[in-house]
Amino acid sequence: VACGLHVPCCPAAASGPRDTLRHADSDGLGHAARAERFGRAAPVPGPVPAPGPAAATRARPQDPPRPAGQVQGRTRGDPARSGSCGILRADGALPAVPPNRARPQVLEFVSEVRRKQHEARAGVLAERKALEEAAEHRELMAWNRAENQRLQELRIARLRQEAREQEQRRAEEKARQAREAQAWAQLKEQEVLQLQEEAKTFITRENLEARVQEALDSPKSYNWAITREGLVVRPKHKGS
Description:
Largest sheet: 2 strands, antiparallel
Structural class: mainly alpha
Number of helices: 5
Number of strands: 2
Order of helices and strands: HHHHHEE
């Protein structure tokens, strides 16, 4: 890397003398400071040879020319010269997102932050849902107990009503049986009285001769005819 170029990437850990020199240059140190750090003599700047055709094709944009022997004028806090990753700007704002090498790390960081936010949000939602389900469960259990109590009271009232109705039916059945028994007794009593009245005309050993004599004294003829219309035709006596 040519001295004085601005490399917009995160400074990596130094793995050798070249990386150390590169970090020293990114820290704003010039050739003299680098030579002093590594115990070497500072090279005396000499005339720069003219670049050839091949070098012109590989030329990169350089910093503005400076007088010979002048130390590079970059500082650590210079927002325009410092790296754009890992170093805060002078106004305290975050550096711009590097376009190439640091973008995967930034995307990974953003995805990690979003994942943690999603997990936290999911945890909060799960906890809220658990609380809501617990509250709903308590409400349903309270409603269930109240409903069971109401149904129990209705069941007890229905059983009492059924017991009263059954007792009333039993009383009515007893009254009906009593009325039937009384009616049967009255009927039998009337039959007995009727038999007693009919018994007065019965033919017994005691009144057999008297009945025979009574029949001879008052003969009755049962010789009569019945017309087709059902009328009885009695015979006329000779003396009539």
